[in-house]
């Protein structure tokens, strides 16, 4: 019997680790994601396949038994604590994950064998290069602001920062490293580059509630808006402790120098 470490699920999670620049918490359990009432009046915490706290991302790798009837997995002659057989319970718990995870502010991505290079039985051929390319598209988000945010978050993790829940709920991204704190305003591609840059600076000004010297601020923009973001004079940015970061079209991060 294959171990979890050698499973297709572990292979997929490992590739996601490479893309995200962060190691997942596998089989993680949240206090608010619970199964049905079981013997002794207890509810077990349901595991998720992988959770990346820095990205606030959960990935579920759902093999064929999650979408097809399979007596070997479903055990239709046995009832679970949910009052249904295992296959029906699996569907109930998948639906519960689909509902509860986004409701708690986390992004949920569901990956299936058909999304990658798999055979007719749903087993992955482990075409690493092709699977990485497919997963990069799956993990990418729709808007360019999401792309810039995710790329910058990955860069922060690589630089030793830890993303945290923002002090101000309107902040796009906040991270700490030792005593340092970085509060970020992120913008994506836009036809109103100058206006969006001005808005970003204004939003940061409203969040400068701390007088501590270890607090810094960042305007994070795509390459197309870097020139507009740099229009605020360098000496003003230094006084306000604001740095400007450019996220290139090929997802590299550069800090604009004065």
Ordered list of secondary-structure elements with their pairings:
Blueprint: H1 8-20, E1 25-34, E2 45-52, E3 57-61, H2 71-74, H3 86-103, E4 107-111, H4 128-139, H5 144-158, E5 162-164, E6 173-177, E7 180-186, H6 193-206, E8 215-222, H7 223-229, H8 234-240, E9 242-247, E10 253-255
Parallel strand pairs: 3-4, 7-8, 8-9
Antiparallel strand pairs: 1-2, 2-3, 5-6, 6-7, 9-10
Helix pairs in contact: 1-4, 6-7
What would you note in describing this structure?
The chain has 258 residues and is an alpha/beta fold. The protein has two domains: 136 residues, Endonuclease, Chain A, CATH 3.40.960; 112 residues, Trna Endonuclease, Chain: A, domain 1, CATH 3.40.1350.10. Helices cover 35% and strands 23% of the residues. It starts with 7 loop residues before the first helix and ends with a strand. The model has no long low-confidence stretch (mean pLDDT 88).
Summarize the structure.
The chain is α/β, with parallel strands linked by helices and 258 residues long. The protein has helices at 8-20, 71-74, 86-103, 128-139, 144-158, 193-206, 223-229, 234-240, and strands at residues 25-34, 45-52, 57-61, 107-111, 162-164, 173-177, 180-186, 215-222, 242-247, 253-255. The protein contains eight helices and ten strands.
